[in-house]
Every structure is written in C-alpha cells, then in structure tokens.
Design goal:
This protein has about 475 residues and is of the alpha/beta class. The protein is about 35% helix and about 25% strand. Helix 3 (about 20-35) packs parallel to helix 12 (about 365-375) and helix 4 runs antiparallel to helix 5. The structure holds zinc ion (ZN) (2 copies).
Length: about 475
C-alpha cells in the first residue's frame, strides 16, 4: 500500500503526467474514496459548536472554529467578513386541543414568527387546502382564527417537492395575517413520520408578524382527523422574539492559484444552522465536503505530487443562509473586488451520494464538462442536460457572471430530517460523504487547472 502510493507519487511527479489534469483528477477522486478528510470536519463542527443560529454567539463561535480549522487544514489567506443580520430567538411553543378531545400537539415556531401573548391565545382552527385557497378567503374573514394549511409533500430524489410546497411556509403566514388571522399553522415541510417539527424561515414584508408554527407530520394528521369530526379550538402559546441586530459572517480560505490567482473557483456551504438540531446535514455537510475536497489538493501539493492549480480555489463557509439568503454571496463579492469568479458551486443538500452533474457554463467550456463527466462516471454520477442553478449563497456570484455547476445529491431522505431536532451527526453516511468529496475534488482540479472561460451564457461577465 505504502509502496504503491509512493510509486503513484513518483509517476505523477513527472512533468507530463502532472500536467494531465484528467490523470490528477482521477488520482484525487480515488484517494477521496479511501477515506476523505470530510467526516472529521462535520464531526468537529457539530460536536464542538453544535447549533449555529445566525446572528447569535453560537454562530460567532462557529466562525472562530472555521478560522482555526481552515488554518489547520493548510488553507491560505484565511479571513472573515462579518455583517449585520436581525437576530431572532425561539421562546415557549405549546399547543393544546381544547374540549372533549383535549390533548397536546407538537409544533415549533417558524423563523421570524411573531408571538402570542405570554398566556397564549384560544381560538378556532380554519383549514385551507393550499395557499391559493387561503388567498381566496375574503379580507377580514379570518379575524381571530388560527389558520391551518395541510399538504401532501412527498419524497423526491431531486428535492423538487420542497419547491412545490415551500410557499405554504414562506408566504402563507403573511397572507393569513393580512386577512386578520391570529396565528398560522402548517403541516411541517417534511416527508418523514417522526414526531419532529421542521422549522424554516417565513417572510412578512410590510405585514405585522403573527405567531406561525409547523406541526409535526403526525400531529398535523391528528389535527386533520379532528377537523374531519367537527370544529377544533386550540390553546396556542408561541413566544419567540426579535432581539435586535447580531453579527453573521463568511469564513474564507483558499489555495492560491499559481499563474492566474485572480481567476477564482468559488465553492462552499453555509456555516449557520437552525437551532433545533446540530445542523449536520444542513449544512455542516456542505462545509465538510467542500473543505475536505480542497484539503486533498492541499496535501497533494505539499507532498510534491501535483503542482499548484493555475486558478485560485476559494472555499467559503457562508454566513446566514437560513434567514437572509443571498446576502452572504453579496457580501462575498463586496469583499473581493478585482477577482473574477470564474465558476461557482455550493453543497447544501446533505451528504447523501451525488447522482447527477449539471452545469451552466460558456459554450467553450463544454468539452471540459465532458471530461469531468468521464471522471465522474465511475462514481455513478450521470451528466444531465438540465441547467445548473447553484444555491442561495452563490446566487449573487452567479449573477456576477460566474459559470455554475451542480453536483446534485440524492435528496430522497433529506426532507425527513431537514430543519428538525433530528438533524444530527448520526444521519451522515461516511461512505456516501466520501463519494461526494470524490466528485468535488475532481471538479475543483479540472476547473482550477484549466484556462477555459466558463461564464455562463445567459449573463455577461463583469467588466
Ligand atoms: Zn442549507
Ligand atoms: Zn436550511
């Protein structure tokens, strides 16, 4: 084993093979599969920091962790960008059915939910099939009522059901508030039957927030059965609050490019998480996969097996994704004038295996994508003609003109766990995580060692 590794190193050190990006990508890919550095990263972040709600001291501790970890891994130019975000804290959250079927229901407040009075409210539940039905309710008709929206979100490999039903959580509470409702409940945007609630942010615009919460899937089913039998009254207490402004931030490190350092491949995941679990699949996994892939390149450079890549590979542990979405990417761009983001990609869909390669790059980069597809094929990753969309944190970077690649993960079980107290380290499958790292390190090496422009065709690159 030791001899074989040394032999491989000496072969790759010969200039001809070291200059063959596909040979290097293949070597790094295979090395990732033998046990990548990623699991140690996700284990460390979820254990030593735990939950990392944006704007809180816990997120600040995560940034300190990120700086120390990146330095220890050998990243260059490790730095932090901080910026202000609103700070929200969870309070008491209880619900009881009042009357002959008196019983507790399990729920959790949505991010940025308003509050009930401390003593709670007692009100009748009005059920709607979907957001459209809620929107059609006459103005003022819901005065003092608790709105409940049920749904039938199902598992999907590509996670598309979250898109289809997400509007219930994001837009539903504000619509209910506008119509006079006292509170809003939804069946969690989840696909499992565990009695855990799925939180997530909701948006209010100019509307004064009301209490808004997600029932667990079994509790929503229970409420639906009770409503089938007749009117239901709930006593609901939710006391979250806004506590002013806090700091969020990006933690950034890089492998500086050898000959084109201002051409940058920008990748990462987000460092913040919801407060209920320890944010293992969302998104310590993405932090681990992207830093773990870069670490394989750092180690191979240090050992003399491979040269520095032509371009800079920059890994960003993005700040507040859960509540402030694209702000993290906007802040990244603001802090790095003069650099051109050639290509960007985000890992923010857990740690289960990558099954599909999607890209949105300049026509001239298509042959490079074909080479990448060949290196990824033995990992069970198939190329797709569908365009890549990236993730929330890199939205602004894509808009700046960068090409984008999705290494699309299998999301079949993602929404069983997403945004719940159950998002913990034990849900990470090490073998599947290493398959992710194998895909990412192949992609990073091929794109960073290339001189092909990759800006996607829809948007002109920045001057
Ligand atoms: Zn996420
Ligand atoms: Zn999330």
């Amino acid at each position: 084993m030791r001899f074989a590794a040394l032999l491989a190193a000496s072969i790759l050190a010969t200039p001809a093979l070291a200059a063959d990006p596909v040979a290097v990508a293949t070597m790094l890919r295979d090395r990732a599969l033998t046990g990548s550095p990623a699991y140690a990263v996700v284990e460390s972040l979820t254990t030593e920091v735990g939950q990392r709600l944006a704007g809180t001291p816990a997120e600040a501790r995560a940034r300190d962790w990120g700086v120390a970890r990146m330095k220890a891994m050998g990243f260059q130019n490790v730095h932090v960008q901080t910026y202000d975000v609103p700070r929200w804290e969870r309070g008491v959250e209880t619900a009881e059915v009042v009357g002959t079927s008196a019983q507790r229901l399990v729920l959790t407040a949505l991010g940025y939910s308003g509050a009930t009075p401390a003593a709670g409210i007692t009100a009748q539940v009005v059920r709607f099939a979907d957001v459209d039905a809620l929107s059609a309710a006459p103005a003022g008709s819901l005065k003092g009522k608790i709105v409940f929206i049920d749904h039938a979100m199902q598992r999907a490999q590509d996670g598309s059901s979250y898109g289809a039903f997400g509007g219930i959580r994001r837009a539903g509470p504000a619509i209910a508030a506008q119509k006079g409702a006292a509170a809003f409940l939804l069946r969690s945007l989840g696909t499992g039957t565990a009695r855990v609630s799925h939180t997530g942010t909701t948006t209010w615009g100019d509307v004064t927030p009301i209490a808004a919460a997600a029932l667990t899937v079994p509790d929503a089913q229970q409420l639906a059965r009770l409503l089938d039998r007749g009117p239901v009254t709930l006593h609901l207490t939710l006391t979250p609050r806004l506590t002013g402004t806090g700091k969020s931030g990006n933690v950034i490190g890089e492998i500086t490019g050898a000959t084109a350092p201002r051409e940058v491949i920008v990748v990462g995941g987000h460092l913040d998480s919801w407060d209920l679990g320890t944010g293992a699949i969302d998104d310590a996994a993405g932090i681990a996969i992207t830093t773990g892939a870069a670490k394989l390149i750092i180690d191979a450079i240090k050992s003399g097996e491979i040269p520095r890549p032509r371009r800079t590979i920059r890994v960003v542990m993005f700040g507040d994704e859960e509540s402030q979405g694209p702000l993290s990417g906007q802040q990244y761009l603001k802090g790095h004038p003069g650099d051109t983001a050639i290509l960007t990609a985000e890992s923010d869909f857990g740690a289960d295996r990558v099954w599909q390669l999607r890209s949105n790059v300049a026509a001239g980069a298509k042959p490079l994508m074909a080479s990448l597809a060949k290196v990824l094929a033995p990992l069970g990753i198939a190329p797709s003609s569908a365009a890549a969309h990236g993730g929330t944190d890199i939205e602004a970077i894509i808009e700046s003109g960068a090409g984008v690649i999705d290494l699309a993960q299998d999301g079949t079980r993602y929404f069983d766990i997403h945004h719940t107290a159950d998002d913990t380290l034990d849900k990470i499958d090490r073998v599947q995580m290493d398959q992710n790292v194998a895909g990412w390190v192949s992609m990073l090496w091929l794109t960073a060692s290339s001189d092909v422009p990759m800006a996607h065709p829809a948007i002109a690159p920045l001057p």
